Amino acid sequence: MKNSASKTCGRCRQTKSTLNFYPVGQDGEGHPFCTDCLSLIFLAKERERRKTSLVRLRTCAQCEQAFPLGHFHWIKASKAYHSYCRACHSAYMAIRYLRKKGGSRKVRSAGGWTGT
Q1: pLDDT tens track for 36-94
Q2: pLDDT at 1
Q3: What topology does CATH give the domain 1-55?
Q4: Cα–Cα distances in Å, from 50 out to 18, 54, 58, 74?
Q5: Would you kindly state where each structural domain of the chain is located, as residue ranges?
Q6: What distance lies between CA 41 and its chain's CA centroid?
Q7: What is the C-alpha end-to-end distance of the chain, expressed in Å?
């Protein structure tokens, strides 16, 4: 940084110590904004990003209704959202469970155990 022990922030216009500025560039010149102002800027951008991501809609492949992304399961392996909404996916899995449970039952008959 420069030899001066203080610097004026370009955003809040307060004179602060050079330790309150991130070093930028090869010559060590500090960032024009202080660390406090940069934190506020990044927080505002993060809030805006979260707000816009919650508004995004996706259409369920089963019921064909549009829902926010929060209504869909996140699949880690494929890094994408499931095509069915949570309600349709839950109903599908319940039917699948009953079908598998009913299909793999073994019944005792006169000839021994048989699968049905």
Answers
A1: 999 999 999 888 877 766 568 889 999 999 998 889 999 999 899 999 999 999 999 99
A2: 44
A3: Wheat Germ Agglutinin (Isolectin 2); domain 1 (3.30.60)
A4: 33, 6, 16, 16
A5: 1-55, 57-107
A6: 20
A7: 80
